[in-house]
Specification:
This protein has five helices and 40 strands. It is of the alpha/beta class and 357 residues long. It has a twelve-stranded mixed β-sheet. The chain has a ten-stranded parallel β-sheet with strand order 9-12-15-18-21-26-29-32-35-38, with no helix packed on it. A hairpin with a 5-residue loop joins strand 22 and strand 23. It starts with 11 loop residues before the first strand and ends with a helix.
């Protein structure tokens, strides 16, 4: 990505970049860059950034022409590069990348061939449809939507403004995608929930899944994630949620506003996650429970019951209070020593008893 980004800033000066990220300039405002580079490797004519203090030593040796740094960083020695000071260097750098993506995607428009677009499809302005895309009946696509090669969009799907649907995404019938949503390659939205009724003879009868999936505004969904449609009603991913790659979201689940879920996690049916929840990688959450706002679930935890108190941190399987878990781990590590001390006390007690007799 960094090499591609050189197209964005081929002749950008420090002054121009400062305007983009609202930075204060220290040094030559006419300094120009032609590409990005890591601060420890950057060369003359490249832009770098420093957010993590452990890399500060590279700030004084890098050959970068422009460096984005935190506004409160105190320099230990002179630097030849032009500095762009911002409240948060990492956020500013991310914003710069976002502006690049906006420029690139806005340039894409039109319909490539071969692709299939049903006659009942309605599209807004500045829409890009790549080759081998399939748009089914009554699909509604708003403005500035980009759909890349091999994507499938089912009947009656609604897609909001400024949506990016990457290669190979499958969106089943009746699902709703909000504004400013990004869906990465291979993700499936609206596949059947895992619903089967056991019969007396030991077999299972499929329960029809007639609901849909609703993805609200400003959501990002990683590659190869699966979000099942509801049995009845909607599986809902609320505004601002961020889902990593390889996540399973079951039928009728609700993911709250600005909740983040890391890779390989699975959430069982009808469970509701509150707002601003943080879920680590490989977490498993059972069905029909609720997770309070602000909860933090450590990686590889298994959550078997509701978390009712807001801003609770849990870990382990079954998951329980994070601080208590750390204490238990410390106690476990001390068990050999405790066992030794108990045996010594037992010997002392036996000795005292024998002397008394």
């Amino acid at each position: 990505m960094l090499e591609t980004l050189s197209e964005l800033i081929m002749t950008f000066t420090a002054q121009q970049i400062a305007l983009l990220i609202n930075a204060k300039i220290e040094g030559d405002e006419t300094a120009a860059v032609a590409s990005f580079g890591k601060i420890e490797e950057a060369k003359n004519g490249q832009l770098a950034f420093l957010a993590n203090p452990k890399y500060e030593e590279h700030l004084y040796t890098t050959q970068a022409s422009i460096i984005i740094i935190n506004e409160n960083l105190e320099l230990k020695q002179k630097i030849n590069a032009t500095l762009l000071r911002v409240p948060d260097a990492y956020v500013a750098f991310a914003g710069l990348l976002s502006k690049y993506q906006e420029i690139v995607t806005q340039q894409l428009a039109g319909i490539q061939e071969p692709s299939f677009i049903a006659k009942t499809v309605k599209m807004g302005e500045q829409v890009f449809i790549a080759a081998f895309v399939y748009l089914s009946e009554n699909v509604l696509i708003a403005n500035n939507v980009k759909i890349f090669a091999g994507a499938f969009v089912g009947n009656n799907v609604k897609i909001g403004n400024n949506v990016i649907i990457h290669a190979g995404v499958k969106i089943y019938n009746d699902c709703v995608i909000g504004n400013n949503v990004t869906i990465h390659a291979g993700t499936v939205i609206g596949s059947d929930g895992f619903g089967f009724a056991p019969l007396a003879d030991g077999t299972f009868k499929k329960v029809p899944q007639i609901g849909n999936v609703v993805v609200e505004d400003n959501v990002e969904i990683g590659a190869n994630t699966t979000i099942d449609r509801a049995t009845i009603g909607s599986t809902i991913i609320k505004a601002g949620a961020k889902l990593d790659n390889l996540i399973q979201i079951a039928h009728n689940v609700e993911i709250g506003d600005n909740t983040v879920i890391a890779a390989q996690s699975g959430i069982s049916g009808s469970t509701k996650l509150g707002n601003n929840v943080m879920v680590g990688g490989q977490v498993g959450i059972v069905g029909h429970i609720s997770i309070a706002d602000g909860s933090k679930i450590n990686a590889q935890s298994g959550v078997t019951k509701s978390i009712k108190e807001k801003n609770t941190a849990v870990t382990g399987s079954p998951a329980y209070d994070y601080t208590a878990s750390l204490r238990s781990q410390v106690a476990s590590r001390n068990l050999p020593d405790l066992e030794k001390r108990v045996k010594e006390l037992e010997k002392l007690v036996q000795q005292l008893l024998s002397e008394k007799v």
